[in-house]
Amino acid sequence: MNIQLKTQDGSVTKPLAGRVSLVTGSTSGIGLGIARALAAAGSAVVLNGLGIAAEIARTRDQISADCGVKVGYSAADMTRPEAIAEMIAATIGEHGRLDVLVNNAGIQYVAPLDQFPIEKWDAILSINLSSAFHTMRLALPAMRQNKFGRIINIASAHGLVASPFKAAYVAAKHGIVGLTKVAALETAEEGITCNAICPGYVYTPLVEAQIDGQARAHGISREKVIRDVLLAQQPNKRFATVEELGALTVFLASEAAASITGIALPVDGGWTAH
Ligand code: NAD
Model pTM? Predict the structure, then answer.
């Protein structure tokens, strides 16, 4: 994807040229897709997340070469507020600004509520919710100074509706939708917007791994797993793609979305229309 705009004099510019974006949890899946899309739209990007150092270095080089933008990386653990503070300070220190903050890092664990391991509850709340509180509280002063900011929180359809056995995930995702609305209200007159994207099932390597695993476990075809198990709740019976989420993030980060703030936008093929 290479996004360009033609100006009135015919010259070509990218919608996020000169911007600096930080995407938490961007070493794989949705976060990586969003980081690629922001870079293709002209923004410098700081990646974050867990992974193998050599692979992360290759990803940085590749995005930078493809898009002609600076690509940095922070290994900050989203469970550690002091590491998050270092990441934000380093981003602003190196680039002089932080325009687009995408809170995407997230994990999942599935168990009945009365058997939910306490350490899993704590980890999900801290990675999927509290990390966004920390990045936002630390990024806002720099955004306020520039009178420009775009905060995009990757929530979930589970930020709007519940499913059984996902107590921590559903609580954290509902929480981040609430946090999004508070930030939108507090920044509404300052050129800053804060929105949540609420995907249903998105096609990522983790989902691909689940398809074969479930097919083997239930002795059914891949097609049946996709339609009747994974996408049981998703009326359009197709996965959203990381490219679709990347394009939406670029739009929300652009000038064109200046009046959109405080929303929780489902990208779920009709799931939450039920
Ligand atoms: P993923 O596992 O591919 O990516 C998660 C990212 O978070 C990785 O980069 C990982 O390294 C990072 N991460 C995990 N723990 C971390 C920690 N302690 N510190 C820093 N980084 C950490 O998952 P994904 O499917 O791409 O999910 C990304 C986000 O999208 C999550 O918030 C998830 O809840 C949300 N989401 C995913 C789907 C889906 O179908 N895949 C649907 C709705 C919402």
Answer: 0.96
Q: Is 233 in the pocket of ligand 1 (CB under 6 A)?
A: no
Residue 73: active-site member: no
Residues 73 and 165 in one domain: yes
- Whether 38 and 72 have beta carbons less than 8 Å apart is answered as no
C-alpha to C-alpha distance for 14 and 4, rounded to whole angstroms: 4
| Ligand 1 pocket mutation, candidates 22, 26, 28, criterion most atoms within 8 A of CB | 28
Is residue 168 in contact with ligand 1, taking CB distance under 6 Å? no
Residue 6, domain member (yes or no): no
Q: Based on the domain organization, do 166 and 259 belong to the same domain?
A: yes
How far away, in angstroms, is 28 Cα from ligand 1 center? 8
Reported as a single tens digit per residue, the pLDDT across 121-140 is 999 999 999 999 999 999 99
The pLDDT tens digits for 59-71 are 999 999 999 999 9
Q: Return the H-helix or E-strand segment holding 266.
A: strand 264-267
The domain tally of the chain equals 2
Do residues 127 and 107 make contact, with C-beta atoms less than 8 angstroms apart? yes
Domain that holds residue 128: 16-201+240-269
Q: Judge if 86 and 183 occupy the same domain.
A: yes
